[in-house]
Amino acid sequence: MQTKKFLILEASRYEFQKAISDISGFDIKAHKDQPERIIRVAREWFVETVQLRGLAGPSALWFRFTDFTADFWRKRRAEGFKDDEINSMPIPEYVSFLETWVAEKY
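Above: the chain's sequence. Below: its structure in token form.
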């Protein structure tokens, strides 16, 4: 019995087959290089595969994401970070900011 669940995102539906044949048995969700669609596809995956219920709709999640991104960049620049430093920020630092932001907003 397989207990692990995976979500694989890519720009076009069968792009993964060119590079990785090991994942060909998994359901691949295409986002067509559209950031807003990534939110929709990921949300649908959580509802369908993990049976996660009570999520906000795709549009509401997208607006929350853009609000977070704007706040993140504004606050980091105010702290003296340059764009390249923000783009290469260590994941734990980014996650810490995200957790604080979510706790303050929701």
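DSSP finds four helices and two strands in the chain.
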